[in-house]
Amino acid sequence: MIEFENVFPLPLEGVEAEQGQTAAAPLLFRGLPIAWVSVAKTKTVLVSECAFDGDDDTRDVENRNHLIAYKGNTKTRRDFMKSEFDEYRMHPYKVKFLTDDVFRLGGNQRSKLQYHILAQRFPLVHVSE
């Protein structure tokens, strides 16, 4: 069996383990606590065995929504980003090429071309320190 040695030591300060180490510090965003919240969501789905004959049945499907809890509110990721960053999705546009000839380029080259076109059309967003 091969044993690997950590080249960079892992920071274990504040990590809770079974050996009785200290509790983990809460995650902070701009000095306030922030956390992921998993909320159960139940949706009723209509299920039929056969489209032409048979009885219809309903089934409850349970899903989980992952929300962000911050400042006493729970928000989706997009709503959180929009409320905290003014320029988030200020220009939510996607380049649609008028010809299929662009597909001869690789995926990375197409992405670079799309970003170049968007940068020519819209100004870059200022990022504060």
Which features does this protein show?
129 residues; disordered N terminus
What features would you describe in this structure?
The chain is an alpha+beta fold. Helices cover 18% and strands 29% of the residues. It contains 2 helices and 4 strands, in the order E-E-E-E-H-H. A 4-stranded antiparallel sheet has the order 1-2-3-4. A hairpin with a 7-residue loop joins strand 2 (32-48) and strand 3. The chain is flat, with a radius of gyration of 24 Å. The relative contact order is 0.10. Residues 1-10 have low confidence and may be disordered.
Main sheet summary: 4 strands, antiparallel
Point out poorly predicted stretches. Answer: 1-10
| SS summary, helix count | 2
Beta content: 25-35%
Mean pLDDT: 77
Strand order, largest beta sheet: 1-2-3-4
Instruction: Assign the structural class, choosing from mainly alpha, mainly beta, alpha/beta, alpha+beta, or little secondary structure.
Output: alpha+beta
Computed Rg? 24 Å
H/E topology pattern: EEEEHH
The shape is flat
**DSSP E strands, number:** 4
Taking the alpha carbons of the first and last residues, their distance comes to 48 Å
Helical content (DSSP H or I, runs of 4+):
10-25%
Summarize the structure.
The chain is α+β, with helices and mostly antiparallel strands. The protein has 2 helices and 4 strands.
Annotate the secondary structure layout.
Layout: E1 28-29, E2 32-48, E3 56-70, E4 73-75, H1 77-84, H2 107-121
Antiparallel strand pairs: 1-2, 2-3, 3-4
